[in-house]
Amino acid sequence: MRKCLLALALSGAALSADPGVAQDTPATIDVASDGFAAFLDGLRPRAMAAGVSRQTLDATLPTLAFNPRVVSLDRAQPGGNPAAGATSGIAPFAPYRDRHVDADRINRGRARYRDLRPRLAVIEQRTGVPEAVMMAIYGHETGYGTYTGDFDLLRSLASLAYDGRRRELFTNEFIATLLLIERGFPRSQMKGSWAGATGYPQFLPSMYLRLAVDGDGDGKADIWRSEADALASIGNYLTNAGWRPNVPWGVAVRVPPMLDRTAIRPRLTSPRCPRVFDRHSRWLTMAEWRRLGVQPVSSPAPADTELVSLIEPDGPNATAYLLTTNYRSILDYNCSNFYALSVGLLADAVAQ
Q1: In terms of CATH architecture, what is 3-77+147-210?
Q2: For a Cys staple, 212 with which of 109, 112, 208, 266, CB 3.0–4.6 Å?
Q3: Is the pTM here over 0.85, yes or no?
């Protein structure tokens, strides 16, 4: 299960920590403390089977209290409250782009890019993921490390698992966090967003266990304090998600007014994030799009033989984008077209 599955579970909720959210604000949700304690005690056999020691369980489980704040935040997500009505319509991309690919984020990204170039060059050589793409994800997730969230991961994940709406998902992440403590990471370091994303790259604990790597050569993958480790782990994540070296994520294009959009509709429905992928056209080569009159307005453009799909995030008569399979790798990180487009555009701006 990759990080995007939590994004899917949260119906597009941002995983990045929100520096403006009060972390332990009282909420109206309440549960009996003995029921919560009994639930945690029931997880002991499963945690021990996964490799968590009795000593770690004895030291942590009695310290946990139900956190109504995280359950309240979870239920506030789209789809979190079955009684809430569905929203219709799709917001335009341009306002989101203006907030997330702004001058401040670009300038700070360029400064960090210059400082980290020696490390980034080595990671790019090893993974094939462009340095600027790794920096753009770092910038989107935590503002280049300026905010990573201060929710207690164990308490948050235990509370979400006990609430039961996605019990299996959050139970797995709770046990993965215990395994991080078992590996020697202190409980005080296990902080992150209310939904369990942690560290500079905002990995879920289970994702850390599978894909975090050492980027600074000290023998330990510390995504909470080492930028090199965090960036190497982002590169490793994208490689695992299918990133192809020397292929751009996509390119901005101008679409002719008379393009027959019914002829380019996708022919299949994605089993994952269907609303996200439904906005993409079917695959055509770059040369085929050119013959239809779709012309790049930025660079670099994918090769004429490259298969790409079209998205018009602001509708007809606005800037559109042709997207390669590498764009899909960014979507794997967070299944949101706005997120993935902004990562691509920020990477292009940082690299200039």
Answers
A1: Orthogonal Bundle (1.10)
A2: 208
A3: yes
